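(S)-2-haloacid dehalogenase
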Amino acid sequence: MHIAFDINETLLDTAALNPLFEGMFGTSQMRQVWFLTLQEHWMTATLTDQFLPFGELATAALRQVAQQQGQSVSEAQQQALVEGLQTLPAHPDTLPALEWLSRQGHTLTALTNGSLTALQKQLQHAGLTGLFDAELSVEQVQRYKPAPQAYRLVMDHWGIDPGEMTMVAAHSWDVIGASHAGCLTGFIARPGKALDPEGFRPTWQDTDLESLTRQIVAATPEDR
């Protein structure tokens, strides 16, 4: 079975950035504002065919949020954000879920909107190195998720059809994009993440990654 995982928020806990945002803006709630602004930046870059590195978009979003608040951010603060993104801890259920899937012999792919270099640093810091059979970045296709080219990157890497791939993510736009590309989908409802109850329905969903992955394995034919 081929299962691809989003990284930030899905496997790694971005709440670890809260002290950084508290120090800059006086409240950790600005982290969510920053992340939504970052999403706007990468989706705009994809729609306008102007791919820019994730790190540049992350710091640009930080500067934009600061401007909205009538503040400014220093180069040191921007660098602290980049370094913070590369040293996020894994959610408590991440390692057990990945180790179980690996022991079962399933093919696991890390698919990130970040750079490949940053991904490798993230996995090493979070203790997840060696658990993935492939580590892929959208920089290889110059299109951010949820563009279909990002998901096809995984399919092309393994030589599989869309229906043979399951995309696991904590973002509605990610699972919707993967579904549009023909993939099966698993939504993990991390804190603050939810789907429209009257909208898109993923193939599977849960609040715990171990439970979600067991659902996927139990329901998916063994030859996938």
